[in-house]
Structures are given as structure tokens and as C-alpha cells.
Specification:
The complex is a heterodimer of chains A (about 160) and B (about 425). With about 160 residues, chain A is an alpha+beta fold. Chain A has a single domain, classed as Alpha-Beta Plaits (2-Layer Sandwich), CATH 3.30.70.20. In chain A, the strands form four sheets. Chain A has a two-stranded antiparallel sheet. Chain A has a two-stranded antiparallel ribbon with strand order 2-3. The longest helix of chain A is centred in the first third of the chain and has 9 residues. The radius of gyration of chain A is 15 Å and the shape is globular. The model of chain A has no long low-confidence stretch (mean pLDDT about 90). Chain B is of the alpha/beta class and about 425 residues long. In chain B, the strands form seven sheets. In chain B, strands 3-2-1-7-19 form a five-stranded parallel sheet. In chain B, strands 9-16-10-11-12 form a five-stranded parallel sheet. In chain B, strands 22-23-26-25-24 form a five-stranded antiparallel sheet. Classes of the chains: A alpha+beta (about 160), B alpha/beta (about 425). The interface between A and B is large, with 37 and 44 residues.
Chain lengths: ~160, ~425
């Protein structure tokens, strides 16, 4: 029986590049998971404007590819660099999230993230966007769950 | 333990939070001359054009002081420190004693030698109360002169334009934000301003701000003189002075705290006086990237310094080491980012990648500054994707020789670097 994870402290999503086919289903499911049409890919992609951005970045130089996203760092550079205090790390869950009400899109976080995994969401106003470990989906990352080759996995650092 | 922090912005908050990770019992007081809950100063331009409000501007939640056991003494100005008696002296005569003191008083506006600055409608642009004063004057159809095309000056220009003010910006340098931008990138920003009907006047100094009779009466015009001696009178309804900032150290004159441009600190953020520390815009640190002392007036640096100071004050052995200095500025529909050394100094090499927009993408500019085989800085206009990877390449002094051709490529990422470099950056400290 699936256990509801209540904290991701010490957990990270990592990629196995030897299994990644570059299909980008992780991106599709990330968009789906962050849209209001959680179970309907067609509606999520075609009925929402602006379409939510994927928060996983797939790098590819054929034949190598892998997905990379926010690692919810212990010592998050983005949180320290954030000029408004919008970016914060939840002390209970360990998840780093961006308060979209306070973010003004200065992009300083993009300059500080050593993985380069924060993206500019400009259609809905200037907001920095990144992986939130599917905090609204029971902390069960959609990208990991839907990769056809299990090329994404959660690693426990404890 | 009794901790006293003078300051209420990024460095002060970072220090307070760091102290609390180690010491939840010690007493803590924050003293600020501003009456406001801790707030983000760069947001004052967003406040002026309605993108944020006083509540959203708070840097930490409304319960920040309470939840961290901090006594906030807001609206109290510090006028001196008696280091031998360990007392902070307030303007109202009160003395506050401390066991460990952090000075995080930030920046004050630099005052240029211009006659007429005291007039009622001539404003600084550094804190919330400046924005609130400007609000009344910055009405649609009014005219403003912004003196100083600094980062802050240009953000003032932006919010005034959004309020329907007709703006002229004047600077003595030959380009906008001269310490950050080069000629090419300045031209790109000048074009954006011209598109928004801002008149940009460079290589020109301000002689005086003239107005009615009486020294405090409202300013009505700004007299400027260009490099070739031509004088011009710019009529205005108000003026904003944004010619730079300096560390706020005036009150330390008789304290014995050693200062240069800023308060001198070691790698524990300690000053020359025992139990007195300094952090943020007010401090002068050793910058490992330029190999000299510097006042690094950015929020990311203020946070790191404040955090290090707080940990030192709480008795932990944590040394501060400067990070590459980063600045990101969105301005209208352009974004400028600068990291590390953005000037082509002696001994450096430059790689430029310039792209023309195709209607969907914008014109963009990327300059990489290299010293031997290391990236020491970058300057981007309208290129933000994966920028942090470049910052990390500067930070870790990665040898870029194996992949220098890939710098600035469209899909730059970890796969643009050799496998051994990529493995190190992606998997350092992680067991799979």
C-alpha cells in the first residue's frame, strides 16, 4: 500500500541517464499535475492559457538525455538570494516553494541556483517557477511516477 | 546572552535566524530607524507602480519577531556606540546594553554636490518612505528628472513611466549603470527606455536644481551641463536623486569601530572591537573573486554575510567566504544579469554571443569574461535560462578549456560540459 510521504527532508529526485529516452513524458505530466485538469492531458494542454510550464528540464545531446529539477537543497541558494522573501524552505516538509503572490520576477534565484532549474514564467506575470515536489499531489512526484523507463527516482539521503 | 542587532533588513534578518538555529534562549533586540516591519527595499519601485503593497512587501511574515523571540525597537535611530560600556545610544537618549552586537545598518544615499537638493520635491529613492513621498507628486502627466542612471535610478524611471510621468534621466557616465553594463548592453537598455519615451542624457552633469524663492521651495527645473560645456534647463515637477549609495557608518564616528569605506570585518564578520560584528551593505569584506576588499551591496551577499555573522555571534566556528556577486534587473521587457567581474579588465579575455530576436525571442547579448581558463564573470541581456550554472562555474573555478565553445550556446546545460565535470557538479555529496 502506498505510504503518504509527509516530509521530503533528505530526499531528492535524481535521474538515471542510461534509462532516459528523452521522451519528455515527465514534462507532460509535470504540466498536467500543476494544471487544474489533473487527469486530462488534452484539456490541460489546450484549454488553459497561459499553459503551466514544466518544472523539470530535460537536457539532451543524443543519445544522452536526463531530466533535472529542484533538489530542495538543505542550504538553498535561491532562498538566500530571494529579494522579497517569496522563496522559502518549509522547516517541516523540507520543500522549497515560491510564494507566487510575493514573487516579482527579479530572476535573482535563477542566477543563484547551481542546477539552473528555475524557469521564467512570464505569461502569467513575472513569476519564478520550479519543482515543488508535487506538494499539492501528496508529495508523490508525477514525473517519477510516469516515467516509462523508471529513469527518475527518489533517493533518500538519510 | 543578549544579542542586539542594529538594522532590520536582509543581513539583520539572516543573522537573527542564524542565531536562533543555535540559540533559542538568548535575548534578542532589533533596532531600526525605520518604523516598518522588515521589508524588501528593492520593492519600493514595485510599490509605486502597484505591483505590490505594504503587506506583500514584508520580507518575513507578520509573526517574524514574535516567533523568533525578537524585541523590535522600530523607529529608533542609533546615534552612537559606547564599546567599553557595551551600550548602544539612541537619539531619544535611551541606552541599550548588549553582549554581542551586530551592525547591519545598510546603505545610505550618496549625496552628490548639487545645489538645491534640499527642496521639498527632490527625493532619494532608497526606502519605502521615499516612495510614499514621491507618490503624491508622481501623477499622470507630471514631469520628472531622475539624476543618476544607476540600478535604483532606472527602477525609479520604470515605475514613474508606469504611472504616466514624463521622465528624463541624466548621468555623468557614457553609459547606463556604468559599473555593470558595457557599451553594447547599455545601448540595448537605452533603446528600451527610448521606446517608452524616456529621454536619456549621458555624459552630462547636473549643475543645480532651481525653483522658487526660498531654499526649500519646490524645484521647478534642473540645470544640466554636457561634457562639451552646453547647458540646458530641464523643467520638472519633481526630481529623484539616485547617484549611488554608501555604507551607513556616520553614527560610528566616536565608537572606535574601524572603517574604511565600510566597516572592516574578518572572515567571522567580526570588527576590530570584541563582540561587535558587521554584515551587509555596511560591511567591507574580502572578495575572493576580485581579490580585494569590497562593499558588496546586494541582497544575496547581505544574506550570506548576515548568516555568517549570526553564527559567529552564537559561538559557532563558521567562516564567511564571498560568493560571486550577482545582480539581476528586469526593466520593462528587458532583463539584465551580471555576475562576478563584468568588465574586460587587464588580463581577462571576453567571449561575446549576440543574437537578434526573431519576433518571438528578443534581441539578446551574452558576454563571458575569462581569466586564463576560468570564467570570472558574465553579463547577459535577455538570457536567463540556466544562468545559475554559469554562476556555479565561476564559484568553483571550473576549468572551462574543454568546453569554451559551448559557453552561451542555446541549449547550454550540464551536457555541454565533459562527463567528469558534469558528474562532479550534479552528484557531489549525493549517494545513489
Amino acid at each position: 500500500m502506498a505510504e503518504l510521504k509527509t516530509t521530503i527532508k533528505h530526499k531528492k529526485i535524481m535521474a538515471k541517464e542510461e534509462f532516459c529516452a528523452g521522451c519528455r513524458l515527465c514534462e507532460v505530466h509535470c504540466v498536467l499535475a500543476h494544471s487544474k485538469y489533473r487527469n486530462d492531458i488534452v484539456k490541460a494542454f489546450k484549454k488553459i492559457y497561459p499553459r503551466p510550464l514544466p518544472r523539470i528540464i530535460v537536457e539532451e545531446q543524443k543519445p544522452i538525455s536526463f531530466g533535472i529539477q529542484c533538489r530542495h537543497c538543505e542550504d538553498p541558494a535561491c532562498v538566500k538570494a530571494c529579494i522579497t522573501g517569496a522563496m522559502s524552505k518549509d522547516p517541516e516538509t523540507g520543500i522549497v516553494t515560491n510564494d507566487e503572490n510575493r514573487c516579482i520576477g527579479c530572476w535573482t534565484c535563477m542566477m543563484s541556483c547551481p542546477y539552473g532549474v528555475i524557469v521564467q514564467d512570464v505569461k502569467g506575470g513575472h513569476i519564478a517557477s520550479k519543482c515543488d515536489f508535487c506538494i499539492d499531489n501528496g508529495m508523490d512526484p508525477a514525473c517519477v511516477k510516469n516515467c516509462p523507463n523508471e529513469a527518475l527516482f527518489v533517493v533518500d539521503q538519510e | 546572552m543578549k544579542y542586539v542587532i542594529i538594522g532590520n533588513s536582509t543581513a539583520a534578518v539572516a543573522a537573527a535566524e542564524a542565531i536562533r538555529t543555535a540559540d533559542r534562549e538568548g535575548l534578542m533586540t532589533i533596532i531600526s530607524d525605520e518604523p516598518h516591519h522588515t521589508y524588501s527595499r528593492p520593492l519600493i519601485s514595485y510599490y509605486l507602480f502597484g505591483r505590490t503593497d505594504e503587506n506583500k512587501m514584508k520580507y518575513r511574515g507578520a509573526d517574524f519577531y514574535e516567533k523568533n523571540g525578537i524585541i523590535p525597537m522600530l523607529g529608533n535611530k542609533v546615534v552612537g556606540i559606547d564599546a567599553s560600556a557595551k551600550l548602544v545610544i539612541l537619539e531619544n537618549g535611551t541606552h541599550i546594553n548588549y553582549e554581542k552586537l551586530l551592525i547591519a545598518t545598510g546603505s545610505r544615499p550618496a549625496i552628490p554636490p548639487i545645489k538645491g537638493l534640499q527642496r521639498n520635491n527632490v527625493f532619494n529613492f532608497i526606502k519605502l518612505d521615499d516612495a510614499r513621498l514621491i507618490e503624491k507628486y508622481a501623477v499622470k502627466g507630471s514631469k520628472a528628472v531622475v539624476i543618476g542612471a544607476s540600478f535604483s535610478g532606472l527602477k525609479a524611471v520604470e515605475c514613474l513611466v508606469e504611472r504616466g510621468v514624463s521622465v528624463t534621466t541624466v548621468d555623468i557616465a557614457d553609459r547606463l549603470m556604468p559599473r555593470l553594463l558595457d557599451a553594447s548592453s547599455s545601448l540595448m537598455v537605452e533603446k528600451v527606455l527610448a521606446d517608452r519615451k524616456v529621454r536619456v542624457i549621458l555624459q552630462t552633469s547636473v549643475v543645480s536644481i532651481e525653483g522658487g524663492k526660498g531654499p526649500d521651495s519646490d524645484a521647478e527645473s534642473v540645470i544640466i551641463r554636457s561634457a562639451d560645456g552646453r547647458q540646458e534647463t530641464l523643467p520638472c515637477d519633481f526630481a529623484v536623486v539616485a547617484t549611488g549609495v554608501a555604507p551607513n557608518i556616520g553614527f560610528l564616528a566616536n565608537s572606535g569601530v574601524k572603517t574604511n569605506r565600510g566597516i572592516l570585518v574578518d572572515d567571522k564578520m567580526a570588527t576590530n572591537i570584541k563582540d561587535i560584528y558587521a554584515a551587509g551593505d555596511v560591511a567591507e569584506v574580502f572578495d575572493h573573486y576580485s581579490s580585494k576588499n569590497a562593499v558588496i551591496a546586494t541582497i544575496p551577499s547581505a544574506f550570506e554575510q548576515g548568516e555568517a555573522a549570526g553564527l559567529s555571534m552564537a559561538g559557532l566556528d563558521r567562516k564567511y567566504r564571498s560568493s560571486p556577486v550577482i545582480n539581476s534587473m528586469p526593466l520593462f521587457d528587458i532583463t539584465v544579469m551580471g555576475a562576478g567581474i563584468t568588465e574586460s579588465l587587464l588580463g581577462t579575455e571576453t567571449i561575446i554571443r549576440q543574437k537578434t530576436g526573431n519576433g518571438v525571442t528578443k534581441d539578446s547579448y551574452m558576454k563571458f569574461v575569462l581569466a586564463e581558463n576560468h570564467l570570472v564573470g558574465y553579463l547577459f541581456v535577455n538570457e536567463a535560462s540556466r544562468a545559475g550554472i554559469y554562476t556555479d562555474i565561476i564559484r568553483n573555478r571550473i576549468d572551462i578549456a574543454p568546453f569554451r565553445e559551448n559557453l552561451g550556446s542555446d541549449e547550454f546545460g550540464f551536457l555541454s560540459m565533459p562527463s567528469s565535470v558534469r558528474q562532479g557538479m550534479l552528484y557531489a555529496g549525493i549517494e545513489t
